[in-house]
Design goal:
Elements: E1 3-9, H1 18-25, E2 29-32, H2 34-39, H3 44-47, E3 50-55, H4 59-72, E4 81-84, E5 87-91, E6 104-107, H5 111-116, E7 124-126
Antiparallel strand pairs: 1-3, 2-3, 4-5, 5-6, 6-7
């Protein structure tokens, strides 16, 4: 069977909302490189991320389903990036320890920072109460 890539993800958790939808619609799919990225997220950019693949015969239905998921789901807002004090922060699934808001962002590391300081704790920022931790 010939597979076609219809969407890519940087991290394993981003696939979680798509898998049940594809299963419930009965569309066979394959997540290429999912286990590699799950084991070592730092290689995601180097290998092109996790690829959501379907058979050529299901491509049209799968693309429609992806569009529906992205249109109807606030999860796609996780790709949002904001700038605070000249630094970029990307949306996370964290909760603010100060106000319990889920409008939390994490400092967006550059590729060099990721390579030379991979275990450094990244600063988080709450967009609701301006708390940094």
């Amino acid at each position: 069977m010939k597979l076609v890539t219809i969407k890519t993800f940087s991290y394993d958790h981003e696939t979680l909302i798509y898998e049940p939808k594809f299963q419930s619609e009965g569309i066979p799919y394959f997540l290429k490189d999912q286990k590699t990225v799950a084991i070592d997220p730092l290689v995601s950019n180097a290998i092109g991320g996790i690829k959501l693949q379907v058979g050529v015969e299901d491509e049209e239905r799968a693309r429609a389903l992806v569009s529906e998921i992205e249109k109807n789901n606030s999860y796609t807002e996780l790709s949002a990036v904001i700038t605070v004090d000249g630094q970029q922060f990307e949306k996370t699934l964290d909760e603010c320890p100060n106000c319990e808001s889920e409008d939390v962002y994490m400092y967006k590391q550059s590729v060099l920072e990721g390579l030379f300081r991979p275990f450094q704790k990244r600063v988080r920022y709450c967009n609701s109460c301006s708390n940094k931790w």
